[in-house]
Fold this sequence. Notes:
It contains 14 helices and two strands; from the N terminus they run ααααααααααααββαα. The protein is mainly α.
Amino acid sequence: MVGLAESLEYLDSEAAVRSLRRDAYWPKWDSPWWHMMLLHEMGETRRIPPAAIEALVLEMEKTPSTEFLDGSDYHCHCALGCVYQLLAAYGIDVDGRLPWIRQWFLRYQMSDGGFNCDAEAYAVPGECPSSMVGTIAPFEAMLFYTPRDFTAEEIEFMDRGARFLQERELWRGSPTRHNAEEREQAKAWMDLCFPRFYFYDVLRGLYALLNWADRRGVTLERARFAPVLERLEAGVEIGRRAYLGVGTRLPEGGRAKESLFPLLEAVSGNGPSRYLQEQWQKCRELGAKWFR
């Protein structure tokens, strides 16, 4: 595949390690973080060179704070949800080496089961301005990478998150004043994207919810998700490049236009995607079991 060898070679280089030491997360979208995240979404996690994984873990172990409200770099829910999945899939004992991440998920879940990467959202009186983008990655991390029975606290976490997805019907933005802009963003969620990184689309939400139902033995009401299912049954393909136009913060300060890399461009173009098709097929299989 175009760009695959280049990404693997880059991640095995001293340049990648230096980049991670300088800043584990920035810049978007071509720091080692994003190469690794893309390989993970492609099912190529175990091909990531060990040196890059270990450098990432070491930088996260040195984190000066495990507090969300200090606004530190990758200290947001969506980033931690993504990196937890990457490291766990690679075989890292995340709860052993970075135990604060799982506790972070449990600590910062909002009362409706969602999250918001805007720290100010937690202080808004009279409403719960949670975010679908802030929620999906932590929900997936707990769901897919808890290889044992859930604790009572984790069950409560998962069930609240699933209720959040169901109440939003997988496609609705926040009804709140503080997060009103999400209602505009939600118009794009029916258009699928790959890779997702921390972005949301309705197939990603459906896949997570159906896997929760399978793990918890819960039946879902098909009619509740009719708009989403009708959209997906009409065809599953990439409809947008969610990462374009986001821009990036630079490790040395300031902002710039985001930069890309060949593998990212090769797998993200509009049209058919075997990765999305595989996920949709699994949704159909789980839906036959858990939809009524």
